[in-house]
Amino acid sequence: MLVNLPGPWSPLLGRLALSEIPYTNPILAPLFVIIVLAGIALVVGITYYGKWGYLWKEWFTTVDHKKLGIMYIILGLIMLFRGFIDGLMMRTQQMLAVGSGHNGMPLMGAIHGYLAPFHFGQIYSAHGLIMILLAATPLLVGIMNIIVPLQIGARDMAYPYLNALGLWITAAAVFLIMISLFVGDFSHNGWFGYAPIFELAYSPGVGVDYWIWTLELVALGTTLGSINFLATVVKMRAPGVTWTRLPVFTWTAVSANIIALTSFPCLQVALALVGADRYLGTHFFTAGFGGNLMLYTNLFWLWGHPEVYFVILPAFGMISEVIPTFSEKPIFGYITMVLASFAIAGVSWIVWLHHFFTMGMGPYVSTEFSVATMLVGIPTGVKVFNWTFTMYRGRLTFSSAMIWSIGALFLLLIGGLTGMMLSIPAINYMVHNSVFVVAHFHMMLLCIVYAVFSAIIFWFPKVFGFKLNEAWGKIMFWLFSAGTFLVFFPMFMLGFMGETRRLDWPFNLQWAPWFDIQEVGIAVYVLSVLAFLWLIYVSIRDRAENRVGADAWGTSRSLEWITDSPVPFYNFAMVPHVNHRDEAAWRREHGFSDKRPEKFAAIHMPNNTPVAIVIGALTFVIGFGLTWRIWWLTVAALVLTVLVMIYRSGKGDPGYIITAEEMEKMDRESRQKMDDGHAPLPKGGGYTGGTVTAYSAEVGDPGSQSTPPGNSRPLS
Amino acid sequence: MSHGHSNPLQHPEVQMASRSSYLAGFVIASLLMLAATILVSGQVLPPFALLLTIMGCAGLAAIAQIYFLLHIDISEHNIWNTVALVMFIPLFVITIGLTWWMFSQLYLRTMPMIPGMPGMH
Q1: Could you identify which of A224, A559, A596, A707 might form a hypothetical disulfide with A166, taking C-beta atoms 3.0 to 4.6 angstroms apart as the criterion?
Q2: Minimum distance, in Å, between the CA of residue A342 and any CA atom of chain B
Q3: Cis bond leading into A247, ω under 30°?
Q4: What is the 3-state secondary structure (H, E, C) of A680-711?
Q5: Which residues of chain B have a CB within 8 Å of the CB of A359?
Q6: In sequence order, what are the residues at sequence separation of 6 or more whose Cβ sits closer than 8 angstroms to the Cβ of residue A31?
């Protein structure tokens, strides 16, 4: 033991003891019972229906980018729900606790409200970490995983096995943070942690250790994923997909993953140093012994700000796909859209200090970072104007995907303008650490959530072959928007009134009405969650009526819409030759939509592998062992991980071949399963795109010389 | 699945790998770190010279690791390594440079040197 560990420790169990299980907690104990019962029911159900073999073969060992993407999205949605419950608990606590005097529930050991400060601290820490890294990031990575290979005409990601590894390591992080509910505590220092309170002397429990290893695992998973995305887009594009023909969503995925690849190592190093402080007794982040506590904040936000743009850029990409489809026009200003994405990615590296303007480094440094922060408004403004000009004079269809995207624009506007206010150091000094900041970044993150729901509704028919119910999608949108309005506008007000963030006891009685409004908003959010579940239910129930063809919306634009819905595991029977940036729209316009491959060739696909899920499970054991300081377990799991990696490297994956005859048969079956592909088109006609002149500029493009665009069909 | 070279042994990064270069990278980096540790623990140099020396050691160790372990150089046969190297320079200047500036300004304001007090270097 290099550090003086408070409390008992045994070689066999480390710090783990029966007393670490909070079975006396009136919230956690019943929850634990419910989860155990639900788990038993699930296992019994799967065994009863004999689905273990199916799950193992089709899902747990898969390397198919679409299935991995679906699992990422399921993981993200579950964690979104968990994070939402944390939010609900915080709102309720503040509503109950507001005002002076003892208004707490003695049963819970709380003087104010129903949560003790220590418990409240864990909830807001878990809420932030979960929402950003275990809900938003998996949702975005999942959608990128499904869509990017389809948009560039690839059969899979460049490294299918690495893709599976990234998913299972992320899943290990999710399990680690979930188990912290029932075994030990979680960190109570906020999602980004503060030096020196996370040092062992001030946080002697295992909460901070859970926090460190959860973050390390998710950072590892995301870094692996980003390498894979970049290699895929660089190396796996179908013939004809030049860089200028990449759809905007793929471009944003490229820019986002460059950020992820370059910034996530900063987080890993910063947390490794925190780990060194807590496990080895170093003093990187203590004020004494030559350490510097602001160095931690600096290293964390050096990753933290690029991470913010890592999550917003794919969301911008999704909006850029949805709006042109439902405006029946190509995206306005494609080149500026791409440049703006890279400008945002580049600026993301020089703005991180605005998270701690109040550090005290004086006016010169503050000015630089303030100006750099304001610069972000320029490319973002370019994007907003491009989306508006795409809609301008378009034939708008207000489908549920479209209204989610438009909703995202409104939130982006509010979040962006308050962000401009916060970028001014003088204002920042006034509202620093107030809930005004919290309301601001929730506007931005909800902009991402809106874009994600828009993308899920938009691409759902591509992946599953049937549309989600339009009416319930819209009902959910309005409930969700009402909830957002009711929760976060009072939060802006409270911020102006000086409420600091993370307040377990808001003492000022005059704030009470605002907390009540926020609680009503949370209730409306609950309704929107129910609407979402109902949306999924009715959509699956009525799936036969909502089957779609390859082009699910009739006005779709990019390459993924020319393959079958649902997408077969090989993506494209023959690798398509791409003639235009908006390939699906181009083919529709030139009458190629129904064209099937005339001949088939043998294709090479990767094999499934259980190695990824095994390594994922082992990384969970490493994280758990490190958290509880069970050294033998950690070392054993680490050695096993290395051995499994060596085993896999020695074996490699030769893959397997599907012959041309089999391909032809599968292609025919896939086609028969699909709707006839002539689903009723949206009202207004003109689905070929009203602005045919947008294509003529492409004539000079060397790639399109072989198949020059002919005369466009006249508008009907 | 892969385009281009189907045989991974043909890839330039595999061709460039050799036991002696990995060993050289490891030994050089270890020696430099050991030298820095001895210098610091023995307090052989005045503080500022010590700071510069260990920074020099760290720089040399980084170059040795980049060259011997990661095989990133400026030759033409591995263009993506060169791209990675070029990407690295602005990021290095931004992250280290701005951090340095920020903390020097912070120390200027929050850690005034009082004569006779053991200072931070």
Answers
A1: A224
A2: 14
A3: no
A4: CCCCCCCCCCCCCHHHHHHHHCHHHCCCCCCC
A5: 102, 106
A6: A181
Give residue A267's identity as a one-letter amino acid code. L
CA distance A493 to A488: 9
Using the Cβ of B101 and the Cβ atoms of chain A, whether some distance falls under 8 Å is answered with yes
Q: A410 — alpha (psi -120 to 50), left (phi > 0) or beta?
A: alpha
Record the tokens describing residue A405, joined without a space: 């995207």
Q: What CATH number is attached to the domain comprising A302?
A: 1.20.210.10
Cβ of A361 and B109 within 8 Å? yes
Domain of A445 in residue numbering reads as 51-564+603-609
Q: Residue A365: its chain B contacts at CB < 8 A?
A: 101-102, 105
- pLDDT tens for residues A82-92? 999 999 999 99
| pLDDT confidence bin for B117, thresholds 50/70/90 | low
Amino acid at site A544: A
CB atoms within 10 A of CB A626: 24
> Rounded to a whole number, what is the distance in Å from the CA of A603 to chain B's nearest CA?
9
Task: Tally the domains of chain A.
Answer: 1
The CA-based dihedral angle spanning residues A493, A494, A496, A501, taken in that order and rounded to the nearest 10 degrees = -140
Residue pLDDT, tens place only, A11-34: 999 999 888 888 888 888 888 889
Judge contact between A215 and A132, C-beta under 8 A: no
Domain map of chain B by residue range?
A: 18-70
CB contact under 8 A, A605 and B1: yes
Tell me the ipTM for this assembly.
0.82
Specify if A559 maps to a domain. Answer: yes
